[in-house]
Design brief:
alpha+beta; Outer membrane efflux proteins (OEP); four-stranded antiparallel beta sheet; two-stranded parallel sheet; elongated
C-alpha cells in the first residue's frame, strides 16, 4: 500500500510539474473574442433572457383552460297538504370555456413579440460590447507589455552603469555626481516599470474574467499593436448610426410596445365571456332534469380601467422621449469619437515612421558612448527619456485610435471589420 501511495504521489508531482511548465498558448485578438463568445458567463444571462421572452410568448398564445363546476347534495320535498315527505338528491355539473373579447389576445401576442425583440437586441448589444471590450483590453495588454519591456531595458542599462561607476576606484567629483544622477533616474524608471507591469497584469486579469478563465491563467497575445487604418466619412457614419445603433433600435421597439400597451389598456374594459354546457338533476319523488348552454360575462359598470390607461399613456410618452434623446446622443457621440479619431490620425501622421525603433537604437548608442566618455550624463539621460516618452506617446495614441474605432462600431451596430 505504501509503495502504491509513493508511486501515485510521484506521478502526481510529475503531472503537476509538466502542467506548470507548459507554456501559455498564444492567441490572436479575434481568437480571444471567439473564446469570449463561447465562455463568457454574463452572455448566458442574456441568452436566457431571450429564452424567457419566448416562453412568455408561448404562454400568452395559449387558450385559458376550461372550468368545470360540480355540485351534489340531498333533496327533501314536503307535501303541504298531506304532509308526506320524499327524500332524494340533487346534482349538477357545468363546463365553461372563457373567450376573450376579439383583439385582446392579438395585442398580448404583439406585446410579447416586442419583448422578444428587445431581449434579442439586448443580446446583440452585449455581444458587440463584449467584443469591443475584449479587443480594447487586448490592445491595452500589448501596449503595457511594450512599455514595460522598454522601461525594463532602460532600467537594466542604468543599473549596469550605476554598478560600473561604483566600481571605479579613481572616481572624482564629476563621476560621483553622475552616479547620484543615474541613481535618481533609476528610481523613476523602476516606477515606470512597476506601473506598466501593473497595467499589463490588470488587463490580463480582466481578460481572463471576460473569457471565463481562471484569474491566474497565463496570457499571450500574438497580434501586433498596430494603428487602425480606416478612413471614415462623417455623413455616412451618422446615417449608419441612426439606422444600425442597437440601443436606438431598442428604443424604437420599446415605443412600439408602449403604443400597443395603450391599445391593450383601452381594450381591457371590453368584457370576456364564458360559454359551456350544463346539466342538473333533482330527484325526490319526482325526477327533474335540466340540460342547456350557460353564458356568463362581466359588466363594465364601475371600473373603466382609467388608471391603467393613464399609466400606459405615460409610459408611451417616456418611450417617445427616450427615443428622441437616444437619437441625439447617438449622433453627437459618433461625431465626438470621429473627431477624436481624426486628431489621433493627424498626430501619428506627423510622427516619423520607425521613430520608436530609431530612438531605441539611439538609447543603446548613448549608453556605449557615455561609457567611453564621448557624451555627458545629460545627453545620455535625455536619450533614454526620449525613447521611453515617444514609446509611451505612440502607444497611447494607438490605444486612443482603437478606443474611438471600437466605440464607433458599437454606436453604429457594426461588428469588427464591417465598418467602412
Amino acid at each position: 500500500m505504501r509503495k502504491i501511495t509513493v508511486v501515485g504521489a510521484f506521478l502526481l508531482l510529475l503531472n503537476t510539474v509538466g502542467w506548470a511548465e507548459t507554456p501559455p498558448v498564444s492567441y490572436t485578438v479575434e481568437e480571444l473574442v471567439a473564446q469570449g463568445f463561447a465562455r463568457n458567463a454574463e452572455m448566458k444571462y442574456y441568452e436566457a433572457e431571450v429564452a424567457a421572452s419566448k416562453g412568455e410568448r408561448t404562454k400568452v398564445g395559449l387558450w385559458k383552460n376550461p372550468e368545470f363546476t360540480g355540485e351534489y347534495g340531498q333533496r327533501r320535498v314536503t307535501n303541504g297538504e298531506s304532509g308526506s315527505l320524499a327524500d332524494g338528491f340533487t346534482r349538477s355539473a357545468s363546463l365553461s370555456q372563457t373567450f376573450e373579447f376579439p383583439g385582446k389576445g392579438s395585442l398580448r401576442k404583439a406585446i410579447a413579440n416586442k419583448e422578444i425583440e428587445i431581449a434579442e437586441l439586448g443580446l446583440r448589444q452585449f455581444r458587440l460590447a463584449l467584443a469591443g471590450q475584449i479587443r480594447s483590453l487586448a490592445y491595452q495588454y500589448l501596449a503595457a507589455s511594450e512599455q514595460a519591456e522598454a522601461a525594463g531595458e532602460v532600467e537594466e542599462r542604468s543599473t549596469a552603469l550605476v554598478k560600473l561607476l561604483g566600481e571605479r576606484s579613481s572616481a572624482g567629483t564629476q563621476q560621483f555626481l553622475e552616479l547620484r544622477i543615474i541613481q535618481g533616474s533609476l528610481i523613476e524608471l523602476q516606477k515606470g516599470v512597476r506601473e506598466a507591469t501593473r497595467q499589463r497584469d490588470e488587463a490580463a486579469l480582466e481578460l481572463n474574467r471576460l473569457l471565463g478563465l481562471p484569474a491566474s491563467q497565463p496570457l499571450r497575445i500574438k497580434t501586433p499593436l498596430s494603428l487602425p487604418s480606416l478612413t471614415l466619412d462623417r455623413d455616412t457614419l451618422v446615417l449608419q448610426g441612426l439606422a444600425g445603433n442597437l440601443l436606438l433600435k431598442t428604443r424604437i421597439v420599446e415605443l412600439e410596445k408602449a403604443v400597443r400597451s395603450v391599445s391593450a389598456a383601452k381594450l381591457d374594459i371590453a368584457p370576456n365571456f364564458a360559454v359551456g354546457p350544463f346539466f342538473s338533476q333533482d330527484r325526490a319523488g319526482d325526477n327533474e332534469e335540466n340540460v342547456g348552454i350557460g353564458f356568463s360575462t362581466t359588466l363594465p359598470l364601475w371600473d373603466w380601467n382609467q388608471g391603467n390607461i393613464a399609466a400606459a399613456k405615460a409610459k408611451r410618452e417616456q418611450a417617445d422621449a427616450l427615443l428622441l434623446d437616444a437619437r441625439r446622443k447617438t449622433e453627437a457621440e459618433i461625431l465626438r469619437r470621429l473627431r477624436s479619431y481624426e486628431l489621433v490620425q493627424k498626430q501619428l501622421a506627423k510622427t516619423p515612421e520607425g521613430i520608436v525603433s530609431e530612438l531605441r537604437e539611439a538609447a543603446a548608442l548613448a549608453d556605449r558612448q557615455y561609457r567611453t566618455g564621448v557624451i555627458g550624463i545629460q545627453l545620455f539621460l535625455e536619450t533614454q527619456r526620449g525613447y521611453l516618452s515617444v514609446q509611451q506617446s505612440r502607444n497611447e495614441a494607438v490605444l486612443s485610435a482603437w478606443s474611438d474605432i471600437l466605440d464607433i462600431e458599437l454606436l453604429t451596430g457594426h461588428a469588427e471589420g464591417e465598418l467602412k
